[in-house]
Specification:
Layout lengths: L1 H9 L2 H12 L18 H7 L20 H23 L15 E4 L17 E3 L2 E3 L2 H9 L3 H9 L3 H10 L6 H19 L1 H8 L5 E4 L16 H17 L1
Parallel strand pairs: 1-4
Antiparallel strand pairs: 2-3
């Protein structure tokens, strides 16, 4: 959003009004996707738009009616500053890892790409995993079940018939207050469990060799690789692949 970039840079009343107008022009059911960060949704943006001292309607953890404080505004601005810095680093980064061997034709394996992707790498690949004594239909179900603090939502996520349904329930449910801190560790644990519990998939993962694993269609800028995504899911898969190869020797 151009209006957001301008406000974060200038932070005056005129830019704030322009940002509010741009935000309200987006259909309400689509606003939570504006930041392309499925874990925080549009919370940092709302925090900026609501004046200090006025209440939020609901916090990400489900707690209602907390008044916005100056510290909340500063935290939201820092979120956007950090994102911009990450974007700049991403754009300036070499397409080759700094410590990667020079090769004329580096291999790339994409997943979550229709008809041509290695779909078994994706979180919605339909293989069950067991974590802490609970069985989940797939990684996507486990991720969102562990993200929420709402027991009823967790049960509905576990019973969801599709990955999309599990994600939708999870995105509407209150999240753990520390989810931004622990989500990377949780996802790593779940992906590791998937390949440890399914040796056939582990063999396929190891067969990708040293190829870059790119999450090509995930809507999240954090987990995805398109546009300016962080591709953390791809990097987790590369970590698990390295662990599997190491343990096989």
């Amino acid at each position: 959003m151009v209006a957001l970039d301008r406000y974060v840079e200038v932070q005056d009343a005129e830019q704030l009004a322009a940002l509010r107008e741009a935000y309200l022009a987006v259909p309400e059911h689509q606003r939570r996707f504006l930041l392309h960060d499925q874990d925080v949704k549009d919370w940092p943006l709302l925090t900026i738009l609501i004046p200090i001292g006025e209440p939020m309607t609901v916090k990400p953890d489900g707690t209602p009616e907390d008044a916005v404080e100056q510290a909340d505004h500063e935290a939201a601005l820092e979120y956007f500053r950090s994102r911009k810095l990450e974007d700049q680093r991403f754009q300036a980064a070499s397409s080759r890892w700094e410590d990667a061997p020079v090769t004329a034709s580096p291999s790339v394996v994409r997943f979550q790409a229709p008809a041509r992707g290695a779909l078994y790498l994706a979180n919605d690949y339909p293989v069950p995993i067991t974590v802490d004594g609970h069985m989940y239909a797939m990684v996507e179900h486990a991720y969102w079940a562990l993200a929420t603090t709402d027991a009823d939502a967790r049960e509905r996520i576990m019973d969801a018939s599709t990955a999309g349904e599990a994600q939708n329930i999870g995105q509407q449910a209150p999240l753990r207050a520390d989810w931004n801190i622990v989500r990377l560790a949780v996802m790593t644990r779940l992906v590791r469990a998937k390949f440890q519990q399914h040796p056939d998939l582990a063999e396929r993962l190891m067969a990708t060799g040293d190829g870059r694993l790119l999450n090509g269609q995930d809507r999240s800028r954090y987990w995805g690789a398109l546009d300016q995504g962080r591709n953390w899911l791809g990097r987790i898969l590369e970590l698990v692949r390295a662990e599997l190869v190491e343990s096989a020797h």
